[in-house]
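Re: [help] complex structure
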Amino acid sequence: MSDYDFDRVNVLVAEDSPFIRSLLVNSLKVLGVGNVFAVEHGGDAIHFLKRVKNEPMKVGVQQVDIIISNWDMSPIDGMMFLRWVRRHKDSPDRFVPFMLITSYTEPERIVQAREMGVSDMLAKPFTIKHIGDKLISIIERPRQFVHNAEFFGPDRRRQKLGPQGPERRVLTDKSEGVEVIRG
Amino acid sequence: MDKSKVIVRFYRFPNRLRDKTAGLAPGKANISQEAMEAAEAALNKMSEDYPDWVSSLLVKLQEQHGRCVDTPEKRHEFFEEINHIAHDMKGQGGTFGYPLITKFSDSLYGFTVKRPGEITDNQIELVKSHVDAMRAIIRGRVAGDGGEIGAKLSESLDEAIATYEAS
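Output below.
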């Protein structure tokens, strides 16, 4: 079994707590991530991504591969930041893997994040192993993106479970009204 | 396809992130054991500074408690700040080896969530009980589940909660 080489990976970290921020930056670097950019809140993160889009040479990065963001931040929190990444015309990559870190454990919060198009969530307090597991999940198990009238984001169905009983789901790849886009 | 008829689009891209990190060869990859151990060691090193860091948050909680006592008409405002700090602490304690800080601040977070109605003196006392319990944990460096001391602190905090909630 070979080891991942994260040397060419660019990660953006948005976290307001300086202690947790330096823990995240430190851990990612020690795990071998080549470039870790850290900002204090969603507003700074948006500003950074705009710069990546408009002046990549100056920033020194062409593309951010993974975003790791805290949820509860001020003035722009992780959810507003996620919305911008997924929906705004200035977003450099609406498909970028976006991991939200949070101490919120209420189920309605999880649903809210999923509906906004989060790729994965890391519950606080976390361990190094949790960070590692989430990185592997993001690399190994990306989901297709779904875009319809109400939703844009990674497929909310994670498992390929068939229905119990006959298949009654109406749409397949070949149905009229379904467009499959392959990059 | 006629664009107006599209109900849903599925975007399926090649997994470039995997190509970038694991190369083009198939087969499982893993994060190197050495790297994981080095990251753990770095975390342990940082954990040494955690008591100092969290002490500054406890001081902030204590200040907010004092304000609640001195300026009762602004209690909702102060509670919001207490709730915010508790939320932060809840997310950190366990990472740095202090799960009891996570447990107690979760409890503090739970009962300071914004809700209508008056904030009573009992609730303010309960804030103090939580801050005191957490200070005891940090002062005694009660890491992990804290053994007997941890159990005692949990017990007396539970008692305080029961007393204030009953009265």
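The mean pLDDT of chain A is 93.
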